[in-house]
Write a structure and sequence with these properties.
- The protein is α+β, with helices and mostly antiparallel strands.
- 28% of the residues lie in helices and 37% in strands.
- It has four domains: 55 residues; 86 residues, conserved putative lor/sdh protein from methanococcus maripaludis s2 fold; 91 residues, Elongation Factor Tu (Ef-tu), domain 3 (Beta Barrel); 123 residues, RNA polymerase II/Efflux pump adaptor protein, barrel-sandwich hybrid domain (OB fold (Dihydrolipoamide Acetyltransferase, E2P), Beta Barrel), CATH 2.40.50.
- The protein has four helices and 24 strands.
- The chain starts with a helix and ends in a 6-residue tail after the last strand.
């Protein structure tokens, strides 16, 4: 039937073309209008006939599709960057005074307390000086006590009394200074932590420029990351983050604790800090972390990105199902995508809740197709 109609239209065109050369412009316009009217009439008849054939043709195969209900869901878009674990209490302990290592009281991996002696430097000369000063101080104290008694009895000169006093106090100050130096020959832990590494060996010479012990406390660590200045307006203190440590197969939810106030001119980025608890000490300094930072969150229509298509005009669309005159047909819905993440898209326009979105079979149908809906789908 369709072929006969096309043949008829072609015949009309041939007849019309044979008469074109013998007519005026007004006659040609009249003929064109007449032909178009005939084409419209025939197209309408063809559509009616095809509709009747479709209803009577029980052997016709329809595309089978499945449906995905459109719902409002929470949608989050993340910035994905890499960060590095750091610890505030991660130091290399250095001596205040140089000296030879006399004794090492701890082992690598040992838990120590604040103030505990880690390494003793050779302080023999200081101890000898302390002994000498103690002897001199005893004599000075005896001399001062006698002069003080005489002075209180108004016997002797004031100068002798003051000299004895100055001698005693001078020796006391010198002794205090030597004892302070002796304490500095002991390298102690400034906080509770774990001895990670001991650098010198017994008998080696150390100095304030040389590290002796690496001491760490990993109860609390933080992740430091550089973020491009493009996201400065969306990254705030308290912004939700997900931290993933691939090396130890661990994931932690946290939030931004601190935002840097300086833009690095070399890479146009600012620093962020995320504090995390680390009671099991599984996170080590300089461990790499994959960060996902929320930069967009909303509640709305969320659908799989695989169902989104583009037409030849660049319009983004999806197929939905509508029922007219008892027939289930395919409808084309133009949509606007706000954000896309993890194979899902957030739709800002074009779909409403409870729309019937064509899922399986969306790539093999076209607008206007009559389809059948099934719970199962096989190509």
């Amino acid at each position: 039937m369709k072929n006969i109609l096309l043949l008829f239209i072609a015949t009309i065109f041939l007849i019309s073309c044979s008469e074109v050369e013998k007519t005026s412009l007004d006659e040609l316009t009249t003929q064109k209008t007449s032909i178009l009217n005939k084409i419209d009439s025939l197209n309408q008849e063809l559509k009616t006939i095809e509709s009747q054939i479709s209803k009577l043709d029980t052997l016709k195969k329809y595309h089978i599709v499945t449906l995905l209900p459109v719902k409002n869901e929470n949608f989050k878009h993340y910035i994905e960057i890499q960060g590095v674990a750091q610890a505030d209490k991660n130091i290399e302990v250095r001596p205040e005074l140089g000296g030879t290592v006399k004794a090492i009281y701890v082992k690598e991996g040992q838990q120590v307390s604040a103030g505990q002696t880690l390494i003793q430097l050779d302080d023999a000369s200081i101890q000898n000086s302390i002994s000498e000063l103690n002897t001199q101080l005893e004599l000075a104290k005896t001399t001062f006590d006698r002069q003080e008694r005489l002075w209180n009895q108004k016997i002797g000169s004031e100068m002798q009394y003051l000299q004895a006093k100055a001698q005693k106090e001078g020796l006391e100050n010198s002794l205090t200074s030597l004892k302070t130096q002796a304490k500095k020959m002991k390298i102690t832990a400034p906080f509770n932590g774990i001895v990670d590494e001991i650098f010198p060996k017994i008998g080696e010479l150390t100095s304030p420029q040389t590290a002796t012990v690496r001491l760490l406390n990993l109860d609390n660590v933080y992740i430091e990351a550089d973020i491009t200045e493009t996201y400065l307006s969306v990254i705030k203190i308290g912004t939700q983050t997900i931290l993933n440590f691939p090396s130890i197969n661990k994931e932690i939810e946290s939030e931004i604790s601190q935002i840097g106030n300086f833009i690095n001119p070399d890479n146009r980025s600012f620093k962020t800090r995320i504090n995390i608890s680390n009671k099991d000490h599984s996170i080590k300094p300089n461990l790499l972390a994959d960060l996902k930072i929320v930069d967009f969150a909303a509640n709305g229509i969320v659908i799989p990105s695989t169902l989104v298509q583009k037409d030849q005009n660049g319009n983004t669309y999806v197929f939905t199902l509508k029922t007219e005159n008892g027939e289930t047909t395919v409808a084309k819905n133009l949509i606007s995508i706000e954000k896309e993440y993890n194979n899902e898209v957030f739709i800002s326009k074009g779909l409403q809740e409870n729309d019937s979105l064509i899922n399986k079979g969306a790539r093999i149908v076209k607008e206007g197709d009559i389809v059948k809906v099934s719970d199962k789908f096989n190509l």
